[in-house]
Amino acid sequence: MSATPVLALRGISKRFGAVQALTDVELEIHAGEVVALVGDNGAGKSTLVKTIAGVGPADEGVIEWQGRRVTVDRPYAAQELGIATVYQDLALCDNLDVVGNLFLGREIVRAGVLDEVEMERRARELLATLSIRIPSVRIPVASLSGGQRQTVAIARSLLGEPKVVILDEPTAALGVEQTAQVLDLVERLRERGLGVILVSHNMADVRAVADRVAVLRLGRNNGTFEVSATSQEDIVSAITGATDNAVTRRAARRRPEDGSDATEPREGGVR
Amino acid sequence: MSADPSQVSPAGGESVDNGRPPAAGAVAPVDPRLLVRQEGFAGYWSEFGRKLSSGELGSLPVVVGLIMIAIIFQMRDSAFLGAENLSNLFVTAAGTGLIAVGIVFVLILGEIDLSVGSVSGLAAAVFAVLNVQHGMPEWLALIVALLSGAVIGALHGFFFARIGVPAFVVTLAGLLGWNGLMLEVLGSNGTINLDDSGLVAGLTNHYFTDISAAYGLATLGVAAFFLLSLRDSRRREAAGVPSRPFSEIVLRTAALAVPAYVVAWLFNQYKGLPLAVVIFLGVVVVLDFVLRRTPYGRKVFALGGSVEAARRAGVNVAAIRISVFALSGTMAALGGMFLASQINAANQSSGAGSLLMNAIAAAVIGGTSLFGGRGKTWSALLGVLVIQSIASGMALLGIASAVQYMITGAVLLAAVVIDSLSRRTQKSAGRA
Predict the structure, then answer these.
(1) Contacts of A129 in chain B (CB under 8 A)
(2) What are the C-alpha distances in Å from B76 to residues A180, B307, B388, B402?
(3) pTM for the model
């Protein structure tokens, strides 16, 4: 893992009217690393994603791209840097086929005319390298399953050759098999040397693919954990706020079962 | 449709049961269990059957409908399929058909344009006043009239796309407002007769009498279709993506050639190839190309599928919407010129009556979905032929327009029912 993170957020703060949505948030993503961004509803995950994606720029704080300070004030600026975002609600056009969706907004054109052949060839190539399985690249995405649609949406984000991919709740509303497909894909992104930010509610998914877990609570950092060295209880208690300081966290780490006593963890069902 | 993990892949022992396929590169992107199209003609046929059963009817209902209409009227009156009647039918259909082509674009967006009738009348009035009363040259007056249609359409688009007023309401206001403006422009006498040997009069009364014109156009169209299909197929083969088999290209070319030559022969039995038909077909072909082969057309379809997805993909939503309404206005104005040409005048009833409903009905009957995201410019041609055939057949049989309205209404309802049912079938077949 390289020393300089490909993307680093320093002291990000964001205010909506009377609500302080984010306060001094720090986040680092290295190349070839999957960082899970977790937190309860309203913890500021989506707000943070939006600041990175250029949809809702931060009020304060610095975004560093490969060690260099950058401004990300528009979605286009984020894409130019190499940050691709796959939103929860997929953003695919049901009536267009897979090729049409993959290349929407960046169609390959030959003499002013859509080069369908080249687009189809590249689409097949891309899907093959990601081992994505779909019935045909020429059927409307409406006929794909939820998992297939999600993989198409992720593949779509890769066409711009990004260095960081943000996946917003990629496995929400997916079945077991489909979730596995998407998690496979996340691992393949890591193998390709991309930095992945995985926003998720699902502890099982997070533990399955993430290298590190960054916890947000009430708009602040509430700890960053190495997945391999941390128990699920620790992460859950950081999310729910059962522990509010380093001392109780240490105590909880020595006696893992205590962590869940103070507050019933809401994520308990996915263990 | 979704992958059933319990099924065993037929592609030679490669198992996908655990959802963790082997290393990248070893697996085809296309799941071998699904929708594998057989090579050659058999594959084409089975694909066709599968499409039908899953509700992708395409132009089939309207073609069947046209044939049925032809049979019914022909049995009642043998003049129906005569050269004179059919030739006139095509010429009369051009005006409404051109308006319907604009409507197709708006419907693909998932919106509606109710103003096209009034805009077509206004454009005819603008032309008549400029040309006849102010002595402006015909070509210039024609351009001004078309531009006024474009500007009006863009104005509708602006209110819809930028202000956020529903297109239905904006164009409903336009329906009333532009009709009022037309009456104002026409002034007190109410009717302005056009020069009966002029450019606009020629739109519907000029015929290319040389028989080589009609046959030549048919040959050109068929040959162009064949060669372009062949070239596309070769390119696909070279790039290693699925291509149409040669047998399918030949079959499709034949399916195009038969009606093309029959119609050309019919035209030559009467006065020759009508200019109106040449322009109408030209517009349909060019705009079909724009819709299916250009990035612009792709964006129009994308907006019909999901506005939010299109926006996130960097599509300038407002610009596309405004341009589509401008196109609809332009086509309405162009259609208005043809309708004025038929009566050789612009009068107070230009663009009134059933014109608006006929234009929208034509697009829908032809197979363009009211739900947005699906449609072809060819559906305007097919749909307007249905409507005009009914009108023409009824006129031949001397049936009152009261009955004619009811029958056209029933046909429109049938078309919408087919659209809704096919959409439902497609949903249940997972293809909506």
Answers:
(1) 24-25
(2) 65, 49, 17, 19
(3) 0.82
